User: What shape does this take?
Amino acid sequence: MTESSMDPRDYVTLPVFAETGYVVLDSYDQPADPAEWLDIEYVDWKSSGDTRFAPLASAYGDLECNGFWHHDPPKTDKDGVWVESNIAKAPHLKARAEEPGANIGRCRVIELKPNTYAEAIYNLHIDDNNRLNPEGTGWIVRGFFNLTDDSDSVMILREDRDDPSTETRVPLPAGTQVIIDTQRLWHAVWHPGPQLRYCLITSWEAGPDLDAYIGVRHPITRIESPELPAGMAEAAEAEVAERRAARAAATGTTTTAMSEA
Ligand SMILES: [Fe+2]
Assistant: This one.
């Protein structure tokens, strides 16, 4: 089965995601937690944007970030194995990931360098979360816990990559919790900086446990996006069109691969 033939309706999904594909929950008190993301070990991993990742759970417990489906034997994005050396230094982050009680697949901290809005739009991608996921089981969605206080940064979400009118921008103060169907929504973060941004990303299996977790945290499924500075959207669309055309000319293709981040 290819991703393009996958239909979430063949899986257990949560009604809260039906309309918009994302849900913003009550923020948690991140400043009360230690800054464990500064203590753990990062690895270079190809992704959209200028990033590094620190795996907390990987396919078989190694310090690496490959998609579970690339391993031998391959597996779907469930039953992640804790990376002992990192969780020993990050018990609070592990506990955050475990709080919903849902099955955990990939779990990692992302480190993102400052970028521009146009770069974020260029980096919009969808994730390959459900490859090898057996029909009839829970659809994989991903939780984003913003660790650093990035109030001027936004998670950009688009239903249609090339249609700015479908865009939502979720501000990212410390403690922001957003759960996203990242195989449905195109996404990338615009992070003006100047500091590095850190975020805990966890793959969770949709089911009763995740539903209950969401239900008691005042879920909001449609937020009002902060305004962009005048002219920025138009300038970004033009810049992105130019970059995509240059890439297509260089590679002879216009296809966009799914990200493994
Ligand atoms: Fe992604």
Notes: The beta strands are 22-25, 51-58, 81-82, 104-112, 140-146, 150-158, 167-172, 177-180, 186-190, 197-205. The longest strand covers residues 104-112.
